[in-house]
Design goal:
Mean pLDDT: 73
Order of helices and strands: EEHEEEHEEEHEEEEHHH
CATH architecture of the largest domain: 2-Layer Sandwich
Pfam families: Alpha_kinase (PF02816)
GO molecular function, one term: protein serine/threonine kinase activity
InterPro entries: a-kinase_dom, Alpha-type_PK, Kinase-like_dom_sf
Protein name: Kinase-like domain-containing protein
Strand order of the largest sheet: 1-2-4-5-7-6
CATH class of the largest domain: Alpha Beta
Helix content: 25-40%
Shape: globular
Radius of gyration: 22 Å
Low-confidence stretches: 1-12, 66-79, 296-327
Keywords: ATP-binding, Kinase, Nucleotide-binding, Serine/threonine-protein kinase, Transferase
Number of strands: 12
Strand content: 15-25%
Largest sheet: 6 strands, antiparallel, barrel
CATH topology of the largest domain: Phosphorylase Kinase, domain 1
Length: 327
C-alpha cells in the first residue's frame, strides 16, 4: 500500500552563520618558525598560494563608516553584512571563509598607517596568540596532569585583472569565527586590561587562575589580561582577543595594549585577596609553586633526578628579532 502522507522534512543544519557575497583571494601565509617554547622565533613566508574568501567590499564599507561616525549606535544586520564588529582601537573584523570554516579577518582601519606599520601590528598580534596558546597548554598540563589553533597571518595577492583586493591593506590576520546566538550564549568578560573584577563563579575563577599562572610561569615578565570568551558548539569555553602586559623586556612592537609593570602590580594587588579563596589557585598551589627559569646546567648522566619544571624563553618568543632567512 502506498500512503499519501508525507512526513515534514527535517530542516538541514545551517552550515554558515551568514550568507554574503564573497570574493576569492589568493594569499601567502606567514609562519612563526622555530619552537616557541625553547627557541628564537621568526616569521617566514610560505611560497604556497592559498585561497581565502573575504566578504565583498560592498557588504562592509558602509557598515564601517556608520559604526565609526555619528551613527555609531545603528545596528548592523548580522545576517546580511560582511562587517562583524570592531575593537576598542581602530581594528575591524570582517567575515571570511577558509576551507569552508568561518573566519574573522582582522585589520586596522587607519589611513595614516603604512603597509609596514600594519604588518608590524599584525605580526605582534600573531605573536601574542602564539604566546597565549603556549601558556594555555602549559596551564592545562599543570591543571590536568607553531600552529595557533587555526589562526592565519597572510599577505593578499592583488587580482591580476583589476589589481585590487577586498581589504584596505594586503596584510591580514584571520582567526576562526566563534558561534554566537541563543544556542551558544553570549560573550562573557572575565578580566579587563586594567581591572580584574570579581571571580564569583567557577569559570571566572579558572580564568583568573590562568592569568595568575601566566605571571608566575613567565617569572613575572608576562601577564595575560583582557580575557573574554564564549562557549563553542561543543560547550567548551574559548577565550579570544587577549592582551598582555610585559616587564623587564622590550615591548612587543606597536603593542598598544602593553602598559607594563604598573598594570602587573595592579593585578597582583587586586588578585591577592581573591587568590586566598579561589579554589583553582589553591588546587594548583599558585601561591607557593616555583618554576626553574635558569638554563639547565645539569649533566645528562643523572637520569634518576627529574629536573624542575622549566619555563620557556619568553624573550625569544616575544622579541624574535632575528629576520627570516632569505630563500
Amino acid at each position: 500500500l502506498k500512503s499519501a502522507y508525507r512526513p515534514s522534512a527535517t530542516p538541514a543544519t545551517q552550515q554558515f552563520s551568514r550568507h554574503v557575497p564573497l570574493e576569492k583571494c589568493n594569499f601567502h601565509r606567514f609562519n612563526l618558525a622555530g619552537n616557541p617554547l625553547s627557541q628564537a622565533a621568526y616569521f617566514e613566508q610560505s611560497k604556497t598560494r592559498e585561497v581565502i574568501k573575504i566578504a565583498n567590499k560592498s557588504t562592509w564599507t558602509n557598515a564601517i563608516l556608520d559604526s565609526s561616525g555619528a551613527t555609531s549606535g545603528r545596528n548592523v544586520d548580522e545576517n546580511g553584512s560582511g562587517f562583524i564588529g570592531q575593537g576598542s582601537t581602530n581594528v575591524r573584523f570582517m567575515y571570511a571563509r577558509f576551507d569552508d570554516i568561518e573566519y574573522a579577518v582582522t585589520f586596522p582601519f587607519d589611513s595614516s598607517m603604512s603597509a609596514g606599520d600594519v604588518q608590524d601590528m599584525l605580526e605582534a598580534e600573531f605573536r601574542l596568540l602564539a604566546l597565549c596558546n603556549a601558556l594555555q597548554k602549559e596551564f592545562n598540563n599543570m591543571a590536568l596532569s607553531s600552529d595557533v589553533n587555526g589562526a592565519i597571518l597572510g599577505q593578499l595577492i592583488p587580482s591580476p585583472v583589476t589589481d585590487e583586493i577586498p581589504l584596505p591593506y594586503v596584510f591580514f590576520l584571520a582567526t576562526p569565527l566563534l558561534p554566537v546566538g541563543q544556542l551558544y550564549g553570549t560573550l562573557r568578560k572575565f578580566t579587563g586590561n586594567g581591572e580584574i573584577g570579581k571571580a564569583d563563579n567557577d569559570i571566572t575563577k579558572t580564568v583568573h587562575a590562568f592569568a595568575h599562572f601566566s605571571l608566575l610561569y613567565s617569572d613575572h615578565e608576562v601577564l595575560i589580561c583582557d580575557l573574554q570568551g564564549l562557549k563553542d558548539k561543543h560547550g567548551v569555553w574559548c577565550l579570544f582577543d587577549p592582551q598582555v602586559h610585559t616587564n623587564r623586556m622590550p615591548r612587543l612592537r606597536v603593542a598598544y595594549w602593553d602598559r607594563g609593570l604598573v598594570e602587573i602590580q595592579r593585578f597582583e594587588q587586586q588578585h591577592e585577596v581573591d587568590c586566598l579563596t579561589n579554589w583553582v589557585c589553591n588546587k594548583l598551589r599558585l601561591r607557593s609553586v616555583t618554576f626553574d627559569h635558569e638554563p639547565d646546567s645539569r649533566a645528562e648522566s643523572s637520569p634518576e633526578k627529574s629536573p624542575p619544571r622549566k619555563a620557556f624563553d619568553l624573550r625569544n618568543l616575544l622579541n624574535a628579532a632575528s629576520p627570516a632567512p632569505e630563500t
